[in-house]
């Protein structure tokens, strides 16, 4: 069995070379606005070292033009939504008549927040994603309505909070009270769902670098989220991406914001510990 | 479009069922992953098999495999080995077993089982993301499997 797989591996490498196909991640460095060097490749964190040597940003798997768009804020279409969120950040809403800025100051004061989410929330006694934290502020501190989990206002705000942390290493905690959620997420990552019986790991751990039809498989990292996709010309939330990938296994998906996706997000984020926050990244 | 394909599949399946020779997905006899008996008793049609292998909404085998014989189909994947010369490596009975349920021959393989209806985790209704309903059936019909096997049997180097 192993021999058979190895033989196939050799064959694939040989045929790739023969055809000159560009299947491997590129050897390129992402420098943002000619000043911030983004870590797009680094040694795998200890908890995934049995499966991967290196962890790599999805940026390395995209084409030259898509990569270039992300390197400059003037060319990155995702930054338009960051600007929109900046207005929202400073606008008072809800029964308390407060804006985000009233409690937190300027948006760039939030640098360092994105890299640690999802994280355990003591008061709620559960793991919070950034979206859950934002809605908690809206409901309980502003007296404002919750935003839809993957709606436009929400995804824009997560883009703003990611943008001010760009270049900082993802650093989610997987131990302590978050550990059991992390383990649930790991279980989901390796579960082969749907009629095609494919797990996240089948595509993003065993097959990254290879083509699946027209798609160049990356490691499925989430350090770049939310991502602006050229395909649908908008910002895409992490849970919508999870949903799309699970749907593509011909499975019944989970819902954005569900406990399953929160756990999966914590686990997938932890696989990218050490990569820089990139959001809003540009992808095809 | 999608509806018409479905309707055709249903018609094809019920027509075959009338002939009473079709083997149900749950009744297929695998010996070490090999399936000796035809699933329908009707000879496979290689031209239709080629269509199933290349078509995105049918077998979509090219998502994972390269087939030089179908060079006009763009974006062939590289997850599995190229299918060129498959008939030199495998007998018809072996190919039938691989296409119907590759997981018996190749343990833990990424290749989906195309003629299987049970044992799935959260099976969906095609690519809708919704739960499977009573229309749930195998990825390919028995005759489509036979057609694919007939096509693969022509791939000699």
From TrEMBL, chain A:
Residues 84-170 form the Cytochrome c domain. Its cofactor is heme c; heme. Its main location: periplasm. Pfam families: SoxA-TsdA_cyt-c. GO terms for cellular component: cytochrome complex; periplasmic space. InterPro entries: Cyt_c-like_dom, Cyt_c-like_dom_sf, SoxA. It is found in: Periplasm. Residues 1-23 form the signal peptide. Heme c 2 binds at residues 200, 203-204, 245. Binds 2 heme groups per subunit. Heme c 1 binds at residues 100, 103-104, 137. Keywords: Electron transport, Heme, Iron, Metal-binding, Periplasm, Signal, Transferase, Transport. It catalyses: S-sulfanyl-L-cysteinyl-[SoxY protein] + thiosulfate + 2 Fe(III)-[cytochrome c] = S-(2-sulfodisulfanyl)-L-cysteinyl-[SoxY protein] + 2 Fe(II)-[cytochrome c] + 2 H(+); L-cysteinyl-[SoxY protein] + thiosulfate + 2 Fe(III)-[cytochrome c] = S-sulfosulfanyl-L-cysteinyl-[SoxY protein] + 2 Fe(II)-[cytochrome c] + 2 H(+). GO terms for biological process: sulfur oxidation. Its EC number is 2.8.5.2. GO terms for molecular function: electron transfer activity; heme binding; metal ion binding; oxidoreductase activity, acting on a sulfur group of donors, cytochrome as acceptor; protein heterodimerization activity; thiosulfate-cyanide sulfurtransferase activity. The active site is at residue 245. Substrate binds at residue 241. This is SoxAX cytochrome complex subunit A. It comes from Litoreibacter arenae DSM 19593. The lineage of its organism: Bacteria, Pseudomonadati, Pseudomonadota, Alphaproteobacteria, Rhodobacterales.
From TrEMBL, chain B:
The keyword Metal-binding applies. Residues 1-20 form the signal peptide. Residues 44-156 form the Cytochrome c domain. One of its GO terms (molecular function) is metal ion binding. It holds the Pfam family Cytochrom_C. The keyword Nucleotidyltransferase does not apply. Keywords: Heme, Iron, Metal-binding, Signal. NCBIfam families: thiosulf_SoxX. This is Sulfur oxidation protein SoxX. The lineage of its organism: Bacteria, Pseudomonadati, Pseudomonadota, Alphaproteobacteria, Rhodobacterales.
């Amino acid at each position: 069995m192993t021999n058979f797989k190895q033989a196939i591996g050799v064959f694939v490498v040989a045929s790739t070379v023969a055809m000159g196909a560009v299947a491997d991640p590129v050897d390129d460095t992402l420098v943002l606005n000619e000043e911030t060097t983004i870590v797009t490749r680094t040694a795998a964190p200890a908890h995934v070292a049995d499966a991967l040597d290196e962890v790599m940003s999805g940026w390395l798997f995209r084409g030259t033009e898509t990569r270039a768009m992300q390197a400059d804020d003037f060319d990155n279409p995702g930054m338009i939504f960051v600007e929109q969120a900046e207005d929202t950040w400073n606008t008072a809403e809800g029964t308390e008549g407060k804006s985000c800025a009233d409690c937190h100051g300027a948006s760039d004061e939030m640098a360092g927040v994105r890299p640690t989410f999802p994280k355990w929330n003591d008061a709620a006694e559960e793991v919070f994603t950034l979206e859950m934290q934002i809605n908690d502020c809206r409901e309980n501190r502003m007296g404002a309505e919750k935003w839809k989990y993957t709606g436009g206002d929400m995804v824009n705000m997560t883009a703003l909070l990611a943008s001010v942390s760009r270049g900082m290493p993802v650093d989610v905690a997987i131990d302590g009270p978050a550990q059991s959620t992390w383990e649930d997420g790991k279980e989901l990552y390796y579960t082969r769902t749907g009629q095609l019986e494919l797990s996240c790991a089948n595509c993003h751990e065993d097959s990254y670098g290879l083509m699946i039809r027209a798609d160049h498989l990356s490691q499925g990292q989430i350090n770049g989220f939310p991502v602006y996709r050229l395909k649908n010309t908008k910002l895409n939330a992490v849970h919508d991406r999870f949903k799309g990938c699970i749907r593509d296994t011909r499975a019944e998906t989970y819902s954005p914001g569900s406990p399953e996706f929160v756990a999966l997000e914590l686990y997938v984020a932890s696989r990218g510990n050490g990569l820089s926050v990139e959001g809003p990244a540009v992808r095809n | 479009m999608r509806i018409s394909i479905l309707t055709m599949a249903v018609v094809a399946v019920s027509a075959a069922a009338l002939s009473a020779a079709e083997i149900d997905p749950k009744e297929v006899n695998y010996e070490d992953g090999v399936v000796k008996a035809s699933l329908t008793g009707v000879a496979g049609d290689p031209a239709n098999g080629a269509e199933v292998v290349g078509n995105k909404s049918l077998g979509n085998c090219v998502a994972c495999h390269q087939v030089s014989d179908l060079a006009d189909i763009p974006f062939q994947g590289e997850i599995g080995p190229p299918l060129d010369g498959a008939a030199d490596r495998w007998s018809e009975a072996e190919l039938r077993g691989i296409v119907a349920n590759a997981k018996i021959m190749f343990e833990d393989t990424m290749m989906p089982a195309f003629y299987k209806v049970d044992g799935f985790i959260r099976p969906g209704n095609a690519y809708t993301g919704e739960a499977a309903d009573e229309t749930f059936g195998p990825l390919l019909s028995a005759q489509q499997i036979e057609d694919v096997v007939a096509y693969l049997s022509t791939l000699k180097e």
